[in-house]
Amino acid sequence: MEQWLDKAMQGVDPDSPDAALQVFMNLMGMLPWTALIVWSVVFVVVGAVLGWWRGRTVEGIVWAAALGPFGWIVVLLRPRPRPKAMPPPLPRL
Asked: Does 62 map to a domain?
């Protein structure tokens, strides 16, 4: 924990008005952004495929974007949409 605090406080003057912003930016710089973005895209793509399979593509994308792999469970547990009732075709003249 001390190492993280040292990295977060590196180059920060605690008395400056923007010290909190500098600490925040140092913390954000320590995150593995590439891995986070790649995994998020993977989660959304799998959610889209599962949603397409269940007849709810947009819903699969939204749930996967919001909840990650837990969104997949939501999509899989929801019932398939019922087909809309179509009137019988008109007779040909």
From this structure: yes
